[in-house]
Amino acid sequence: MIADLIEAVAKILFIFGVNMGFFAPVLGWVERKQSAVMQDRVGANRADIFGFTLIGLLHPVADTIKLLTKEDFIPAGANKLFHTLAPFITLTPALIAFSVIPFGGQYEIYGHTINLVIADLDVGILFIFAFASLSIYGVVLGGWSSNNNWSFLGAMRASAQMLSYEVAMGLAIIGVIMVYGSLRLTDIGAMQENFFKWGIFLQPIGFILFIACATAENKRIPFDIPEAETEIVAGYFTEYSSMKFIMFWMAEFLEMITIAGIITTLFLGAWHIPFISSKMLLSLFSFAGANGATILVMLTNIATFFTKIIFMIWFQMTIRWTLPRFRYDQMMKLGWKILLPLSLINIFITGLVLLL
Amino acid sequence: MSEYIPVLIMLIIGAGTSALILVATTIIGPKKSFADKMEPFECGESPIVSPKLRFSVKFYLVALFFVIFDIEAVFLYPWAVLFKSLGLFGFVEMMIFLALLGVGLIYIWKKGALEWE
């Protein structure tokens, strides 16, 4: 019981530390640096401590200090309670959604079974969708309570867009669930040990549909109509300043990590290395003794999982800085007239193939 | 039920972090307010219309379609988990259900409810 509790707390602290301590600040830097590289610029490189700039890695620290000491602005006529509550409602679900994604398999070390997932729920995928869709409340509340025309337009656009793409996203996943027959993400991950059993080979259409819908759910370019700078200033967070402003950005980065985690678990073989099974890894590390080998396999699997996550984050960043923004009618057309029928057809074809 | 306890711990830590950031930024930052500054941002103009007026009915329509199709998705999840054991009968039955909703999609499509001009 005590061992279980220590294990649970250790896993929570690990995921929380990686997400909030590493990914959320570093991704802000990565986004600026990658856009700079892609556009032939230098990018963030000025913040320094005693002359050491560390290729701009100190910028997240400098930004945090700067934003903490900025005035927290609430415009006249705004609903103060909801205006303050909106970033809270956006950030909290984004922090929690990662807790059902497994970052490794099950290992037996010194007689204690370690299951590398914070909460091994039997409704894993539904849990993620439930929490991911909660963030829409933060967006709509923030836009509505700001008493600003641009914010309000941004909130309306965001709500319609997120609702539209949530339908297609939910249906795009059905094919994967049909193939693996489980909603539990650890089961789905464990079934992808064979390279040719990865979701991306069994569900190629589902993979493309899910990436498109997830990008739209996260309101990133090419689907960033709710915060289109050239049209409505900054959309629903126009009136936000100081750390409240950055909370919306943190939520976006955390959602990016969660999307990368879902894609890795469902489509890219979770924690497995292509063509190398756990048994081969175990015999490779056999010099370290039974427990040592298991620990080394565990660390390898965690490293593999986070490598895949970093690759998917890079992929989303590249999409962000490659494509132009859709017009609103084009975006709604894509969601309802192309992605939704395609995902229904995908379900039909998957069912047909599985039955034959 | 015990597998939900870590989720609860995560929820408390997450909510605590968000609340801490909110409290910190409210306390630390300076507070200087005067009437012109507190106006909502409108690219330098004084706002002449309140945002809380009527807006396009299209947004309500999207919400209605969402309810219909999302409930469809909710019905599909348990079916998808049990797909292999339900066999041909389950497949045909669910395809009839999907076809009915497909007819609904074609109807709203032809009625022009998905057009944003």
User: What is Rg of chain A?
Assistant: 22 Å
Number of helices of chain B: 3
- Name the CATH architecture of chain B: Up-down Bundle
Radius of gyration of chain B: 25 Å
What this model shows, in words?
The complex is a heterodimer of chains A (356) and B (117). Chain A is built from 13 helices and 2 strands; from the N terminus they run αααββαααααααααα. With 356 residues, chain A is mainly alpha-helical. Chain A has one domain. In chain A, strand 1 (106-109) and strand 2 form a beta hairpin. In chain A, helix 1 (2-38) crosses helix 10 (242-266) and helix 11 packs across helix 12 (289-322). Chain B has 117 residues and is mostly helical. In chain B, 65% of the residues lie in helices and 0% in strands. In chain B, helix 2 packs antiparallel against helix 3 (83-110). Chains A and B meet through helix 1, helix 3, helix 5, helix 10 and helix 13 of A and helix 1, helix 2 and helix 3 of B.
Q: What is the strand and helix layout of this fold?
A:
The complex is a heterodimer of chains A (356) and B (117).
Chain A lengths: L1 H37 L20 H10 L11 H17 L9 E4 L2 E4 L8 H22 L3 H32 L4 H6 L8 H4 L1 H14 L11 H4 L9 H25 L11 H7 L4 H34 L5 H28 L1
Helix pairs in contact in A: 1-10, 3-4, 3-10, 4-5, 5-8, 5-13, 8-13, 10-12, 11-12
Chain B lengths: L4 H24 L29 H24 L1 H28 L7
Helix pairs in contact in B: 2-3
Give the structure's gist in a few sentences:
The complex is a heterodimer of chains A (356) and B (117). Chain A has 356 residues and is mainly alpha-helical. Chain A has 13 helices and two strands, in the order H-H-H-E-E-H-H-H-H-H-H-H-H-H-H.
What are the main properties of this structure?
heterodimer; A: 356 residues; two-stranded antiparallel sheet; 2% strand; B: mainly alpha; Methane Monooxygenase Hydroxylase, Chain G, domain 1; 3 helices; 65% helix; 0% strand
